[in-house]
Each structure stands twice: as structure tokens, then as C-alpha cells.
Amino acid sequence: MKDSTSNGLCAGVTCTTSNSWIGTTRGRLGYAVDHWLFYGTGGVAYGDIKFTDLPAAFIANGSSTNTGWAAGGGIEDAFTSQWSAKLEYLHVDLGSVSLACTLGCGTSTIKFNEDIFRRGVNFHF
Question: What angle do CA 6, 97, 115 make, to 5 degrees?
């Protein structure tokens, strides 16, 4: 995930915030109806937050591995005895990183939230 802006501390340059990896450790709690499972999920999230300014690194640059939280929900259908398919929504909040301007012009706080929609197929042993 990557996005850029040219406002605030980034006036005159392009600042980019990116996330190259993200992980979660979550539990699921749900209600089964026939072969359907309706569930909520939540737990710990972790990932990197990287901030760079271009064309020159004179405002603020940095990266951090943050820990936060994840919560969401989904639906899963066991369409055979060993296979199921699911749709899931997940909101991830990795908190924020504060970066000081190298020119003495202040501090920028980068907040990182991500909304993930995914589908999957599972094989059950």
C-alpha cells in the first residue's frame, strides 16, 4: 500500500507513506447455521510504516514497525465436507509515527489505518 501528498510539511516536494507488509494474530467467534458460519474476528496487528520525501531527503524520513489492532467480520460457506469459501472485512489500525523535520520546521505525525476486503478458499483436514 502506498500513497503520496504535497501539503503540510511536504509543501514543494512529494511525500510518500507506504506499508510493504502487514500481519495479524486474531481469533474468530461466530454462529453456525447449517453449512454457513457468520463470525467476528479481532486481535493484534503488526506492520511497517515508511515515510519518505522526494526529490531530496531534507524534510523527514523514517520507518517504524508498529503494533496495533485488527477487527472485522465475515461469512464462510462449507460447500463440501472439506472445502469452504469466505468473504471477510478487516479494519487494521497500526497507530502513528512522529517524524521531526530535519530543517527544524516541526513534527509530522503519520497515522496508518487500512480497510481490507478479501475472499478465500479453505481446505479442512
Answer: 80
CATH number of the domain encompassing residue 94: 2.40.160
- pLDDT (tens digit per residue) in 77-123: 999 999 999 999 999 999 888 776 666 566 677 788 899 999 999 99
Number of domain units in the chain: 1
HSE, CB side, 13 Å, CA atoms: give it for residue 82.
Answer: 2
Residues 6+ apart with CB under 8 A from 102: 57, 58, 59, 60
What DSSP state is assigned to residue 8?
A: G
Give the Cα separation of 96 and 44 in Å (integer).
15
Mean pLDDT over each residue of the chain, to the nearest integer: 85
Residues written for the chain: 125
The pTM assigned to this predicted structure is 0.80
Task: Please tell me the distance from the alpha carbon of residue 107 to that of residue 44, in angstroms, as a whole number.
Answer: 28
